[in-house]
Design brief:
With 209 residues, the protein is of the alpha/beta class. It has six helices and 14 strands. It has helices at residues 38-48, 62-65, 68-75, 86-90, 169-182, 199-205, and strands spanning 4-10, 15-21, 28-32, 51-56, 78-82, 112-114, 119-122, 125-131, 140-144, 147-151, 154-155, 158-159, 188-191, 197-198. Strand 9 and strand 10 (147-151) form a beta hairpin. The radius of gyration is 16 Å and the shape is globular.
Length: 209
Amino acid sequence: MSLVVDSVTLGEFDTNCFVVRATPEDTDVTLIDPGAEPDLLWAELQRLRVRPVGILLTHTDADHVGAVADMAERSGAGVWCPSAEASVLRDPQVSLRPLARTSGLRPYDPEHLVSGGDRIDVAGITFDVLDVPGHSAGHIAFYAGGCLFSGDLLFAGSIGHARHAGGDWETLLTSVRLVMEAFPPETVVYPGHGPATTLGDERANVPAA
């Protein structure tokens, strides 16, 4: 399956929200990491003439979940959240991670909890869930149709950091190596920030790989 992936850059951290559909003709889409600016994001969905039927989260830093409550309420889409980080989404103010304490971040109780090894079907697409902790304790990634939605694990030319509470550098490196070994080099990586890349390019450019 060759997915159709549109990217909307949101918020002060230029976080990528991905709008994913199985074919160009589909109007049902999956949103991955709607991080901020729900009005802007909703307008883009209207322009694309699509409607979210599911919202997937790679982790619960505020710049990745800031628009979750608004988008879920507007669309009626269910939310799939990393099971190890659901408590942060439910009550952002108790999180030790600085970005989760952003003023005005609305809590949300996710309908679905997922972790590595799960397989979920949303908008006609089957996503495999991978545990990739390191940037945060419960970070996950989603793989479908030759595409890896990596959150803050892997970027074009770099990897994530482990500076906040729940992060661990050696665990992050292990997670990077895991995805490098699990998928072929032509796998397209859609990161939480910045442009798309491929695992092949990152095998050549990322020292940790």
